[in-house]
Write a structure and sequence with these properties.
The chain is an all-alpha fold and 437 residues long. It has 22 helices and no strands. The radius of gyration is 22 Å and the shape is globular.
Length: 437
């Protein structure tokens, strides 16, 4: 029997080891790193080449100035939640739009979109909205299925509208501009929030029992809530305009956001030393977890490039002769399947190093494709059986079953798929703002 050549042997060993480590529940970053090391050693026949990869990537990642945005974005979201900004936002939207059919659920979506501008975590956003919106939704007898679906799906907007850790991770793997990707998510994020709101209103008009109109507030009561949220929107506007106009980098904007939210929380006497410390501890722990995934993925992607596997995949797919639209549909289907099996960071770590050469060969814009990928990650976040937002809502509302939450999220899931194809047909929605930078 003819022995395997080094390329085939190293690829077989690396992917077999990766599958075994995944099955054993090993953290994605560690699994990718070990598989990449083993493959590199077998391919080169040199132990040092494989063992040096994690060291080199760790130095590169830990010294990368752009990656400082990750702990800053996490701290920003934690401080905003501790300062009670989520409650203020929901109260404002609730009073202004709660009186329409399904209005309290629409207010939940609007709050999720606004929260997205200060937190990059969809799970954290969904959990926060459960505590704030669910009591009001039940008080006005909204159907649980609609309520939990709106909360779980509204939380996903947090990874589209900046600051978005998901965009930062994509930018690292795709070697694309972090600033342009963050800005590119604004209009698609607002479009998706609008689609969510429209599907709520349409369903509640067809079946008023799903979500009756909320209470009517006087003009004085509606205006009374604005002083609490105007400073927040002013901070967000200053940060985003700063990136858009080049006044500051994404790192500087994130730092400015942390300082401004911290000052606003202290001024309103809503932040304690404990809540501030907890926010920064959360930033350190989350960032360390993300960095592990980034380092492991870079080790594995280096091995794939070294072995020529990336080029083989690119040549194989391009050789199929698919039209750009069919290729796009294929990517959507692949991400739908992966969304059933893995969480968001793992999907990005595994796929982006392989997908980017194909995207480049087709001639697609990496910023536009990043928006497409992040939109598919929104889908993954509410796709059973692994969708983390579904479990976040279940943990906060234990009396509602997971199947009910998944059914509630389905209409919004379909809106996300619709949004993906709208972005394919109208790429300017994603590229207009980055084009102004």
């Amino acid at each position: 029997m003819r022995p395997l050549d080094p390329t085939a042997l190293s690829l077989l060993a690396a992917f077999t080891l990766l599958a075994v480590l995944f099955a054993a529940g090993v953290q994605i970053g560690v699994a990718l790193g070990l598989a990449g090391m083993a493959g590199s050693i077998l391919f080169t026949g040199n132990w040092s080449s494989g063992l040096n990869l994690p060291l080199l990537q760790s130095v590169d990642v830990s010294s990368a100035y752009a990656l400082i945005v990750i702990p800053l974005f996490v701290a920003l979201g934690s401080l905003a939640a501790a300062a009670g900004i989520t409650t203020d936002l929901f109260t404002a939207f609730y009073r202004w739009i709660g009186r329409i059919a399904g209005g309290i659920a629409v207010a939940t979506i609007a709050t999720g979109a606004a929260m997205a501008s200060i937190t990059g975590s969809s799970v954290a956003c969904a959990a926060a909205m459960c505590r704030i919106a669910m009591p009001e939704l039940r008080r006005y007898k909204y159907a649980d299925e609609l309520s939990v679906g709106a909360i779980a799906s509204g939380g996903t907007i947090a990874i589209m509208i900046p600051p978005s850790i998901t965009f930062v991770i994509y930018a690292i793997f795709a070697e694309a501009s972090i600033g342009k990707l963050l800005i590119a998510g604004i209009l698609p994020g607002l479009m998706i929030a609008t689609l969510y709101a429209l599907v709520i209103v349409a369903r509640c008009r067809l079946d008023p029992a799903l979500g009756p109109a909320g209470p009517r507030f006087s003009s004085r009561e509606r205006l009374a809530v604005l002083p609490a949220v105007v400073p927040f929107f002013a901070i967000v506007l200053v940060i985003l305009l700063g990136i858009l106009t080049g006044v500051w980098t994404p790192v500087e904007s994130a730092a400015a956001g942390v300082v401004l939210v911290l000052l606003m929380g202290l001024w309103r006497r809503r932040l304690s030393l404990k809540s501030i410390a907890d926010a920064f501890i959360d930033a350190v722990v989350t960032s360390a977890s993300v960095m592990m995934v980034v380092i492991g993925s870079l080790v594995f992607s280096n091995f794939l490039a070294l072995s020529g596997f990336s080029e083989m995949v690119t040549s194989g797919i391009m050789g199929l002769g698919l039209s750009p639209f069919l290729l796009f549909v294929m990517f959507v289907l692949v991400y739908l399947v992966l969304g059933c099996l893995m969480e968001v960071t793992s999907i990005l770590a595994l796929t982006i190093p392989l997908v980017v050469p194909i995207v480049t060969a087709v001639g697609w814009d990496l910023v536009w494709f990043g928006v497409i990928v992040v939109s598919m990650m929104e889908v993954a976040a509410v796709t059973p059986p692994v969708g983390l937002n579904l479990f976040a809502v279940k943990a906060s509302v234990p009396d509602v079953s997971l199947p009910t939450i998944a059914r509630g999220a389905l209409p919004f899931w379909l809106m996300n798929i619709l949004a993906v194809f709208i972005l394919y047909l109208l790429p300017g929605i994603a590229l207009f703002l980055p084009g102004l930078m």
